[in-house]
Amino acid sequence: MPSQSTSKLPPIRVLADLDPDEFLKTLNSKSLNAGRTAKRRPQGAFLHGFWLDRQDANDRLRYYIDEWLETGCLGREENPEKRDIRKAKDAHTAFRRFNSLARFSFVIDGDGLAAIRMPSFQEIRMAGPSDHQGDTSAEVGFSLFFLCDWHVKLAKCRNDKCRDYFFLKHWRRNYRGGTLCQACRNISYRSQNSQSAKNGRAERKSDLYIKLAKKFSRAIAKSDEWYSNSKLIDKLVDYANACISEDADLAALYREGIQKKWFGWNQNRVGISNAVRTFQNKQ
In angstroms, how far is CA 180 from the centroid of its own chain? Predict the structure, then answer.
C-alpha cells in the first residue's frame, strides 16, 4: 500500500489587480461627475486605471460594501471576523454574476508558486455589456475587492456625521461601540477626557460642601438665608480655605482659594444646603 505524504501543498494565491488606497479613495468620494471629462475628473473616483464615470455605479459599489459590512454587526457591536458574504444577498449576487465576466488564468508568481491571476478592473469593464456599464462597474469593483486579502481590514466609521471608509489596524477585535476612524476616535477620546474632568470637578466641589456642612450644620440650618449672615460667611471662607490648603485635589480646583462671593453663587448655596440636610438626616 503506497505511503501517504503528510506534507501540505502551499495555498494557491489569488492575484487581484486592485490598489487598496485607490479603492478607498473611490469609496470615500462623496459625489462624481455625471460623465467622464478630461478637464475636470472628480478626485478620488479613480479605480486602477479606470474612472467610475457614473454616480450610480459608485453608489451601488458602496451599497454592496455596506451590506457585507453589516453582516458583522449586532446592534452597536461590530466583529469584522464574523462578516459573511453569504448573508449579504445583493452583494453575494453581484459576486456570483462577476464569474460570468471574469477570465481567470493560472500563472507562476515571483516565488515560483502557482497562482490565479484575476483580470484587471479595466479588462473586465471593457469586456462587459456596454448597456449596463454602471452596474457592471459596481459588481466588478466589489468582486475584485473581495478577492483581495486586505478586504478583511475595511471598515466604515459609525459616526453618523462621518461615515468614511478606512482600514482597520486590528480587524480581529470585537468593537463594542462599532468601528470609528482615527479622526473620530480622537474626538471621542477628547470628549471622554473632558467629561471625566468635569465629573472630577463636581466630585471635589461636593467634598467641600460636605466638609462645610459637617462643621457648620447647626448654624446653616437655623435659616434658609444663611448666606446673608456676614459673620457666618467669614467663618465659612476661613474654614473652606483651610480645607483647600490641606487637600491636594481641592487645591488643584481652587488654586487661589475662595472668597465671599463664592457663597453668593446659587449652585454653591444649594449644594451646601443639600449637604447639611443629608448630614443631619444621618444623625
Answer: 1
Instruction: Name residues whose C-beta falls within 8 Å of residue 4's C-beta, 6 or more positions apart in sequence.
Output: none
Report the C-alpha gap between 140 and 145 in whole angstroms.
8
pLDDT tens-digit profile of 107-151?
666 666 666 666 665 555 544 444 344 456 788 788 888 888 889
Q: Is 178 left (phi over 0), alpha (psi -120 to 50) or beta?
A: left
Instruction: For residue 237, count other CB atoms closer than 10 A to its CB.
Output: 17
Buried b or exposed e, range 162-201, using 16+ CB within 10 angstroms: eebbbeeeebeeebeeebbbeebeeeeeeeeeeeeeeeee
According to DSSP, the β-strands at 46-47 and 50-51 are: antiparallel
Q: What would the pLDDT profile of 251-272 be if each residue is shown by its tens digit?
A: 878 888 889 999 888 989 899 9
User: Rounded to an integer, what distance in angstroms lies between the CA atom of residue 76 and that of residue 152?
Assistant: 19
Decide: residue 247, CB within 10 A, 0-12 exposed, 13-18 middle, 19+ buried.
Answer: middle
